[in-house]
Amino acid sequence: MKISREQKLEHQNRFIQAFIVEVREQGYAAVSLRDVARRVGLSDGVIYKHFASKEKILLAYYAAKMEGLRKEGAALLGKADYSLTEKVQALLEFQIARYEGEKDFLEKTFHATFVAASLMWSEVAAMRKVYLETVGAFVKAAESKGEIPEVVWAGVVDEMLWCHYMGVMMYWLKDDSENHEDSSQFIDRTVNLFAAVVGGPLLKQAEELVGFLVNRHLMPLLMNLGTLGKSRAGYGAKTPGSDGVKTASGKPGRSKPDGKIPDGNNPDGKKPDGKKRGAVRAKPSPRNRA
């Protein structure tokens, strides 16, 4: 029987919630799809229609949270009176608040999903893209208002943003302060540091340093390598009097003008006399001198 989209989403949500309970009780490694299906009260065949593995349920959980972050980011983007730091800080506080009641679940699954996710990298990359696009919109808005200068190294900023998000989440997971005040302080201080790097002179100075190294050192090195490559292209070319022929003994030598190939032990090309070079002839005995 074909089910509606609403029923499908309802089933998926029930499986995700049951999965959270099972992980809390057994640990992530011990949970199976059969355990999840039994807790929901549906057959194994039904759960396999929605999720091919428990990793897929785990990814669906985190993807839903990231989608909620995207929607919150769109709402924050419309607040023109918010600065860049205020938007990023509000977004991170919102995300942590959504995870608040499920921290014990994250303690058992966050590392497996985002740090050791060799089998789930494409899905994690998709979530990373959502986060970077959301915060990247904040950065572009700050640029257009003149709050920060134009960001030249977008790739570097992206890496900073994602590392910051991961750092905030892992700090919060270890935070046992009251109402997670330490996490709020951590977010506040690191967001201000990020804004200072992007909006201040530090990134510009780094850009100037790299430009200096490229122009003064890297480019001359590449030019020298290009010149060396051209000289090596002519290496081994025949020069007058040296045509790369080998002697009869296998040693390299030069051919004589008459076309004869000299022997290594007879460089003048003369016919051998049958006597070994270096052999000492025996002197005649005095008896035979008469």
Number of domains: 2
Radius of gyration: 38 Å
Q: Report the CATH topology name of the largest domain.
A: Tetracycline Repressor, domain 2
- In N-to-C order, the SSE pattern is HHHHHHHHHH
Class derived from helix and strand content = mainly alpha
Quote the average pLDDT.
80
Count the beta strands.
Answer: 0
Shape: globular
Features of the shown structure:
290 residues, mainly alpha, Arc Repressor Mutant, subunit A, 64% helix
What can you see in these coordinates?
By secondary structure, this protein is mainly α. It has 2 domains: 52 residues, Arc Repressor Mutant, subunit A (Orthogonal Bundle), CATH 1.10.10; 176 residues, Tetracycline Repressor, domain 2, CATH 1.10.357. It is built from 10 helices and no strands. Helix 2 packs across helix 3. The longest helix is centred in the last third of the chain and has 33 residues. It is globular. The termini are far apart.
Summarize the structure.
The protein is mainly α and 290 residues long. Helices cover 64% and strands 0% of the residues.
Task: Annotate the secondary structure layout.
Blueprint: H1 5-26, H2 33-40, H3 44-50, H4 54-77, H5 84-99, H6 103-115, H7 121-144, H8 154-174, H9 181-199, H10 201-233
Helix pairs in contact: 1-2, 1-4, 2-3, 4-5, 4-7, 5-9, 8-9
